[in-house]
Task: inverse folding
């Protein structure tokens, strides 16, 4: 009986802590008054052009989804104030940074198509073609007032601990900014994970993606982000690892991992302690193959031999055709599967040695002679073939070309099958869908291209259909719908097929525990309950 | 008004899901009946010798804390059955594997000292010296019936995906078993993270520790454990990444990270998909230095130069004295700070090249001539200096020597200061406390040695005091109380000082959400609420 009484006391205490007070009905007028009493005008944007700018996705063709206000935070306490106002007056908060996210992560859900892919393109304004009931639900959500919290002005490097290979940064600086800072100071360290140019650390951690260096350095889910300061929806400011700045620790499960990949739905990151890598001699090389299979075999052999590639990138023949049209490289490349590689080792000597081995592996697999950059200039020239992809591809379609970038990832052993089967979908569709893949990771971006019509507000049906088929195929091949760009609004529909009900239920349980009022970037990653629109 | 009504509906639904039904008072007789109706005798140990064996910590001097029963699960469904019985009849479950955990992770909390360090040694039975009220509380908890779920018989390798550098394993096999399996099959891949010999994957993931290879390969918190099957306390069996076996993914936050380091308090891991690394030529080298500072400078230079060490281990003069006494190596080593290194590269050629650079760095820092193993036999011989540490140290004290292994970790830049300041604590204490450190990570194990008295049930006061001072010093130097051995029962008292109240509160919130009845390895990592005994 004593045990039962204790259990009931404990449960009463749990319930009182878990079951939130009813959230107030949104009261925008009071919230606005409170914001204005705390933030000076230069930190609080209420004008439509600014709000539209912050409500627009990178390259999005959708009509802007302007928040009611943008607060430009300068310090952690500013974020705490916004959280207090939001929870008091029932206002939604969306944290935002470089706004390079591709899947609608920082856009108000009311104004995004619940079932569309992310796509880039021009104008806006046309009649909405979504089903009537979808429109109705979104209209209801449109009325939820939203504060966008922009962390971009918190963009300082707070400390560099050179001997410890660490930097402490604010969320508004990106990997590029940090690396420029370090180079300027003459510190021979850098942050090696390289998602979209312009991305900032808050969002990088939020999406937990990667970039071209993942094959050598791992993704943002590796140990690059060691500790974070996070503002929780209960107003607490926590440090996920507390005072500990050691290279490793085992103090229970790492609360920081909750926020990595949470896409701004569980807390707002206000500071990060990140690990750095030494800057080492780098060498770029390029070759091409008769088939994707031989490219894959080459890559697996390189990885098995421990030859220290930092990047292994695949461009297919269609991508190379775009490059040739754009005359990116001085000479025309063969329009066949091409692998661009970067190697990084302790010395040029070791690079050269390893590259001789790579050349042998390429030859064994029937590839063309390995072209190795002779110097830094040639490194950059060859690497341009990778960096110029997304715009050179547009030449395949010409003026008015629009793009939907897909982001599946499969086990490397299934990559050749993915490419050949998806090639047949592409050819049936009559569309261009050139490949740029992080082949070492199995992460394939097919960029679906089409000629946009004036004023269209969503990709044509055949583009959406192709994108879905690519995801279904990837999942069939034990892969994922999202290799590095996250889920946001556009990929939610694929999660049930991939993660299963139980994992989704666990994610919901944690979301409820951390954001019981569902005010922090709601409806991202997970559908609102009862409004699931599963696909695949 | 509509918004408020919706919010209230949502809250009602949240509350019903979050607030658990009252847990039943423990009913061991019914639980036992249910266990016996499901499990044959060979899967259900009720005899005292087996229960005592499973209730005894590795090398623990404490009296055994036998669970009421040990269930040896053979399949995931067995685990689900135990969870159902436990939640139905109010029984505590403790998952267990190799039982190498050092901090009381799998022992019933009732029978462990709430405020003592982990220590190794002999006999038992003496009068308990703990304060009267602590004893009373523990007596109350002793009465909670406990089922230990041993996963050790689930020890198969279920699949190896060689091209994908992946293996799928059950929780009862360890890194050694997996590596032997791969070697026997002629597969040139291995699992590189190497915690205690005998540890098994379930527990390895549970503690999220590391070993000697962390400087090269990262810890278990890096991307080595990609996906897990986990049984939750609501009976769900989830796969943290679902059907996805790709090398990377960004489908929201990774639920698997909740269980890494949770020490069996949030779910029970029943299968793991792990990443493998290529087996590459390895070279061991050894040198010694006049001071710890010069050893640290050498290590930082090696890391900055990208020379691919997989292990950088420090033994201090006292440790070397033990080695010399034990005649581990054919010749006597200088009794001064000694660094053992392992390097792994694509070829012997590159190893040799890199080791020439290392020799130069050592010389610049005033170290002795670098001794490099000439072949595999010498590799093994030199590495023995590391592997024989814990027993050779015992010779410093002689017969009856007992050991408390400490596990702090500090930023590398603070390591020399940690060693010199802690040296002075050690010399004041009059004890031996030789150092074995993963110097590349800043993880210092001082093994506190003393001559045990017959029947003592806890370390002498001066041993416990020294252990506490080491933790306080590490935390002062921005380090952690637990570099790789986890928290269990013995380190809980240090967490508040290190992580802060907010992070601890977040951990509690998540624990409550996942295990609302508090039946899964309760009181580990976190103190029972209202029973905190903070130290430092």
Result:
């Amino acid at each position: 009986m004593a045990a039962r009484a204790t259990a009931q006391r404990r449960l009463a205490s749990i319930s009182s802590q878990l079951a939130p007070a009813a959230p107030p009905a949104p009261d925008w007028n009071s919230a606005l008054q409170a914001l204005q009493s705390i933030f000076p005008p230069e930190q609080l944007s209420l004008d439509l052009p600014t709000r539209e700018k912050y409500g627009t996705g990178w390259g999005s063709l959708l009509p802007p989804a302007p928040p009611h206000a943008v607060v430009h935070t300068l310090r952690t306490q500013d974020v705490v104030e916004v959280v207090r106002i939001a929870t008091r007056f029932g206002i939604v908060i969306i944290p935002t940074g470089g706004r390079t996210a591709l899947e609608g992560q920082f856009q108000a859900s009311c104004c995004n198509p619940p079932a569309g892919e992310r796509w880039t393109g021009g104008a806006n304004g046309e009649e909405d073609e979504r089903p009537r009931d979808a429109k109705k639900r979104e209209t209801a959500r449109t009325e939820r007032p939203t504060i966008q919290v922009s962390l971009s002005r918190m963009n300082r490097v707070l400390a560099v601990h050179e001997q410890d290979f660490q930097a402490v940064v604010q969320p508004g600086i990106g990997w590029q900014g940090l690396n420029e800072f370090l180079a300027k100071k003459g510190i021979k360290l850098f942050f090696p994970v390289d998602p979209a140019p312009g991305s900032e650390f808050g969002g990088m951690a939020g999406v937990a993606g990667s970039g071209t260096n993942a094959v050598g350095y791992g993704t943002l889910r590796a140990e690059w982000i060691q500790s974070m300061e996070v503002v929780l929806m209960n107003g607490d400011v926590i440090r996920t690892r507390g005072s500990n700045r050691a290279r490793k620790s085992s103090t229970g499960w790492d609360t920081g991992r909750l926020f990595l990949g949470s896409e701004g739905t569980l807390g707002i990151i206000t500071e990060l302690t990140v690990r750095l890598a030494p800057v080492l001699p780098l060498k770029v090389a390029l070759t091409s193959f008769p088939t994707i299979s031989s490219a894959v075999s080459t890559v697996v052999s390189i990885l098995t031999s421990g030859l220290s590639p930092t990047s292994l990138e695949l461009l297919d023949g269609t991508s190379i055709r775009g490059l040739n049209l754009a005359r990116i490289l001085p000479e025309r490349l063969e329009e066949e599967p091409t692998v661009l590689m970067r190697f990084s080792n302790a010395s040029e000597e070791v690079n050269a040695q390893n590259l001789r081995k790579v050349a042998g592996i390429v030859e064994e697999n029937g590839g063309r002679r390995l072209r190795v950059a002779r110097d830094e200039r040639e490194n950059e020239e060859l690497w341009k073939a990778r960096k110029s992809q997304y715009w050179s591809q547009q030449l395949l379609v010409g003026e008015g070309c629009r793009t939907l970038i897909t982001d599946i990832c499969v086990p490397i052993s299934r990559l050749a099958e993915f490419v050949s089967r998806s090639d047949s979908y592409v050819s049936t569709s009559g569309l261009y869908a050139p490949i740029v893949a992080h082949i070492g990771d199995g992460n394939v971006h097919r960029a679906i291209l089409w000629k946009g019509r004036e004023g269209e507000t969503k990709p044509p049906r055949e583009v959406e259909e192709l994108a879905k088929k690519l995801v279904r195929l990837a999942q069939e091949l034990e892969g994922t719908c999202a290799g590095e760009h996250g889920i946001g609004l556009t990929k939610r529909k694929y999660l049930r097929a991939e993660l299963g009900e139980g994992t989704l239920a666990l994610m919901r349980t944690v979301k409820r525990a951390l954001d019981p009022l569902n005010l922090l970037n709601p409806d991202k990653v997970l559908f609102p309950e009862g409004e699931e629109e599963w696909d695949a």
